[in-house]
């Protein structure tokens, strides 16, 4: 070691003496796991690992090393108050969330009334409207649905235009109509 006088005096002692202020248990220095869990959980982080107690583990590197340092001799411990210690601002009781509680939270009265009104109108229409009017309305809805489906299928199934052109047969003569280069669709990314 070139300059041992730069290091604190207690580095070279075998047993490190802790200050008297750290030997007494001051509850203001503890971490409250429920407070940490509350703040982390509110931010969307997982708090499951907070319930696992911290156990320092000696690594292979520590075992192989003969040199002792201040970090090796003084184990770093995080003192955590158990959840059983009551605090004045700690809320320990949590509301149990069940399917029934969620059902009550969702306002279904308005939706049920709208659904009943729709059913009533459909039943009334079938009872009072002439058959031809109902058939014409169903046919127009079916045609609309068929046209929309045909549009979707045409867009998804139709292959892109070939650069060599398309073959069109008019009055028995085959003609190729090629696509100009400036109208061709090239991919954004190419692999060479």
UniProtKB/TrEMBL annotation:
Q: Which domain of life is it from?
A: Eukaryota
Gene Ontology CC entries for this record: plasma membrane
GO BP terms: namely:
protein localization to plasma membrane
* Record-linked PANTHER family: PROTEIN EFR3 HOMOLOG A, PROTEIN EFR3 HOMOLOG CMP44E
Protein name per the record = Protein EFR3 homolog A
Q: Which organism is it from?
A: Hipposideros armiger
